[in-house]
């Protein structure tokens, strides 16, 4: 089974640092991405996308954006069009990351609109969903996930989708070093897969997990067959850590 590894650099590296990292680790990144069992997707800041795409153009490393504008073109100051992202070589685009939902006041409707737009332009969405700590305590996880998914699926279920990646990212696990326990994660994954099969049998998707994936948690996470990949935040900043995670996915 192919494993998807998404490296989300957020706003952690400057433009120059991003380019330097790619040049420095070019050969090893190329080697890792050459493995057919791995899809390695690097998501730097908007400004670095074009340059990084050129650096990796002759490799299997794929480039993704961290977000996009909710319209494809028009008077939307500060937004970046999905058309431009396609122009600079993005094959993937993250949508609905909890940090965008929180800091950019993203709503379930705007996430749905963006996901539809991404699909319309033949790019693969990486749709992030996840419950907050309080929702987790209140045991409302599945309800929250379904509420985040429904508006998106309503818009896209009849479309031809090249690939839909759904990243389950509990908000309380992001950047905290905590991950859900094995049984809970298996149960949530199964419930999501079953719900899709019943409600949207025509939509196929790849289920990923994100939130404190590192070289300590990866061995446990790798044992969960339902997960077809991982979204990395902090551990994607350091090449050695990233390499360990990819190698551990390959060993599985
Ligand atoms: P983390 O971030 O790996 O640093 O927890 C994950 C994410 O925000 O997607």
Descriptive key words:
252 residues; alpha/beta; globular
How is this structure best described in words?
- This protein has 252 residues and is α/β, with parallel strands linked by helices.
- It is built from eleven helices and eight strands.
- Strands 1-2-3-4-5-6-7-8 form an eight-stranded parallel barrel, surrounded by five helices.
- Strand 6, helix 9 and strand 7 form a beta-alpha-beta unit.
- Helix 1 packs parallel to helix 3 (46-55) and helix 6 packs across helix 8.
- It is globular, with a radius of gyration of 17 Å.
- It starts with a strand and ends with a helix.
- 40% of the residues are buried.
- 2-phosphoglycolic acid binds at residues 8, 169, 174-175, 210-213, 231-235.
Can you give me a brief rundown of this structure?
This protein is an alpha/beta fold.
Number of strands: 8
The arrangement of helices and strands along the chain is EHHEHEHEHHEHHEHEHEH
Q: Tell me, what's the shape? A: globular
Structural class: alpha/beta
Content of β-strand: 15-25%
Model regions low in confidence, pLDDT < 50 over at least 5 residues: none
Rg, Cα atoms, Å: 17 Å
